[in-house]
């Protein structure tokens, strides 16, 4: 028997479908996770608060496969897992469409200034003209990151007749074109190469009407430089699903900037549909693990994604 330590919230999706060679320990609290982690050969330690999950990894010397439904795993001890020979699978692709929908929704919200419409409704005020007059059609979007999420955002934007230019995080020629884009959309993985890829020099060459859209990682953007650019109106706006820190403290200057649109890392929060996809992938990977085959959505621990 192989001992698997799995989260209780997946139990209704997995129970009755798990292979008979698994001996499962279900956890529903930090205490239960840490109690069972030392037995785990297969682990699923996802928690929104990361330190307890990190501690569970430390407590699991027998771990051979760690599964996560998070697409980004840069917070994990990847070098340690690599050294221990632990295989890591992530949630890439599980929330692709919902993140893409969220990204395009926020871009439309900025283009049409939908918050002003909501505020007018709250006041019982009938607006005579639309508060936002930007059109997505005919605009240009730089898509930094051409993985599953970047491609999904690109497909959605193309339906709105946006000219999209996708590039990978390893390409370097995009900086020379920054001044030509209305939207700069970040959908890159969290790696040393992407850290700080949008800083003061990049912000300085963007057009004054440009909108920065970050659905990647908070550290891809120099947040202090972005605050300055927004405060001085050197770019039109920023849509930030990620911030540093999270949650953003009430006194943080981003809250007070009317051209900062903070979506509180809501885009990738699991939905019932994405949780079902995560469970189905886990079950498929159980058979692959048993057979010694490559796992679906297995992370290259040297690259970080």
Q: Mind summarizing the main beta sheet?
A: 6 strands, parallel
Q: What is the CATH topology assignment of the largest domain?
A: Rossmann fold
User: Helix-strand pattern, N to C?
Assistant: EHEHEHEHEHHEHEEHEHEEH
Shape: elongated
Q: What share of the residues does DSSP label as strand, in percent? A: 15-25%
Query: How many beta-strand segments?
Result: 11
What value does the Rg take, in angstroms? 21 Å
Provide the residue-averaged pLDDT: 96
How many domains comprise the coordinates? 2
Architecture per CATH nomenclature, i.e. the level-2 architecture of the largest domain? 3-Layer(aba) Sandwich
List low-pLDDT spans.
Answer: none
CATH classification class of the largest domain? Alpha Beta
CATH superfamily of the largest domain: NAD(P)-binding Rossmann-like Domain
Straight-line N-to-C gap? 30 Å
Residues in helices, as a percent range: 25-40%
Structure annotation, total helices: 10
Strand order of the largest sheet: 7-6-8-9-10-11
Structural class: alpha/beta
Write the layout of secondary structure elements.
Layout: E1 2-7, H1 11-14, E2 22-27, H2 30-36, E3 42-44, H3 50-58, E4 65-67, H4 78-84, E5 87-89, H5 96-112, H6 114-123, E6 140-144, H7 148-159, E7 163-167, E8 183-186, H8 200-205, E9 211-214, H9 223-231, E10 237-240, E11 260-262, H10 272-291
Parallel strand pairs: 1-2, 1-3, 3-4, 4-5, 6-7, 6-8, 8-9, 9-10, 10-11
Helix pairs in contact: 5-7
């Amino acid at each position: 028997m192989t001992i698997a330590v799995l989260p209780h919230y997946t139990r209704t999706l997995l129970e009755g479908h798990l292979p008979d060679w698994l001996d499962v320990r279900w956890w529903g609290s930090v205490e239960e996770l840490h109690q069972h982690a030392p037995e785990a050969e297969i682990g699923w330690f996802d928690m929104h608060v990361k330190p307890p999950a990190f501690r569970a990894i430390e407590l699991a010397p027998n771990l051979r496969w760690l599964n996560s439904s998070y697409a980004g795993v840069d917070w994990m001890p990847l070098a340690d897992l690599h050294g221990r020979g632990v295989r890591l699978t992530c949630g890439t692709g599980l929330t692709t469409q919902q993140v893409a929908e969220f990204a395009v929704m926020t871009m439309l919200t900025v283009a049409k200034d939908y918050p002003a419409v909501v505020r007018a409704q709250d006041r019982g005020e009938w607006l005579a003209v639309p508060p936002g007059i930007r059109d997505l059609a005919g605009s240009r979007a730089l898509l930094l990151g051409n993985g599953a999420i970047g491609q999904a955002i690109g497909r959605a934007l193309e339906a709105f007749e946006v000219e999209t230019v996708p590039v990978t995080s390893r390409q370097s020629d995009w900086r020379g074109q920054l001044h030509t884009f209305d939207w700069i959309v970040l959908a890159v993985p969290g790696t040393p190469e992407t850290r700080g890829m949008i800083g003061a020099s990049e912000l300085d060459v963007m057009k004054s009407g440009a909108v920065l859209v970050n659905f990647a990682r908070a550290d891809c953007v120099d947040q202090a430089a972005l605050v300055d650019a927004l405060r001085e109106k050197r770019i039109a706006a920023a849509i930030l699903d990620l911030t540093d820190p999270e949650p953003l403290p009430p006194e943080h200057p981003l809250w007070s900037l009317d051209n900062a649109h903070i979506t509180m890392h809501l885009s990738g929060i699991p939905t019932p549909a994405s949780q079902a996809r995560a469970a189905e992938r886990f079950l498929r990977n159980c058979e692959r693990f048993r057979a010694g085959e490559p796992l679906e959505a297995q992370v290259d621990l040297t690259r970080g994604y």
